[in-house]
Amino acid sequence: MSRTGVKRSEELIWLFDLDNTLHDASGAVFWRLNGSMTDYIEQHLAVSRQEADELRAHYWRRYGATLLGLERHHGIRAAHFLAQTHALPDMEAHLHMPASDRAALMRLPGRKFLLTNAPAEYAKRVLTALDLASCFEAVISIEGMRTFGDLRPKPDTRMLRIVLARHKLPRARCVLIEDTVANLKSARRLGLRTVWMQRYLQHQLHGRPQGVCVKIKKLRALHAWGKQGGRQR
Ligand SMILES: [Mg+2]
Question: Are 123 and 95 in contact (CB under 8 A)?
Fold first, then answer.
């Protein structure tokens, strides 16, 4: 038995996304990341600023990550791209997480993992700045999302299946908490429970899309939902 009285074998296993789930990345990070990715494309593919910006957006729409298109069509090395574009000097000064969210996350019973399409070094910097460095059992970053040599970030279901097997995490006990509905939908297809974090959405959306078990705006809501056994729709 754990201290919550729930048998260890029945406890929920929480997989948290990072950006726009644990903190507001739109203001602090994303606009700067877009700029540094456009800089990188302009420099390394020798195209105009406008072409670089269009390519960045095109690959993001087509593959869900600009890096996938650059790797596939231009032979860009992932490690070089990630290190160069995520340098973001002084990023830490602009990061913010509500104290109530942080307290709720730290108190949440069960095993906790971070599952982010961002690189490991960036995730480590964000977690350290938010004082969450000790919160997660493991950080699963984009470097750990290669399957058969290809980069397969969220929402790829094969990657998710392999990552869960690698960490010996039973799907039926896993919960993915995310702001991106496409990632929730693919996790739900694999049998995970899914929580749609809406605190940082730019536009408020009504209704609950297929593949979303529950919607929340504060991490505190996970406590009550978890106590009910992580009710599924
Ligand atoms: Mg996110």
Answer: no
pTM of the model: 0.93
| 116 alpha carbon – ligand 1 mean position (Å) | 8
223, two tokens: 């406590």
Q: How far is the CA of 188 from the centre of ligand 1 (A)?
A: 16
Q: Tens of pLDDT along 110-149?
A: 999 999 999 999 999 999 999 999 999 999 999 999 988 8
Parse the chain into domains and list their residue ranges.
Answer: 8-24+96-227, 28-91
Q: How far is the CA of 2 from the centre of ligand 1 (A)?
A: 30
pLDDT band at 54; cut points 50, 70, 90: very high
CATH architecture assignment, domain 8-24+96-227: 3-Layer(aba) Sandwich (3.40)
Whole-number Å distance, alpha carbon 229 to ligand 1 midpoint, is 24
- The Å distance, Cα 46 to ligand 1 centre, comes to 30
Q: Counting Cβ atoms within 10 Å, is residue 147 exposed (0-12), middle (13-18) or buried (19+)? A: middle
Q: Which fold has domain 28-91?
A: DNA polymerase; domain 1 (1.10.150)
How far apart CA 91 and CA 24 sit, in angstroms, is 12
Using the mean position of ligand 1's atoms as its centre, give its distance from the Cα of residue 127 in Å.
14
Here the tokens at position 159 are: 């990657």
Question: What pLDDT band is residue 233 in, cutting at 50, 70 and 90?
Answer: low
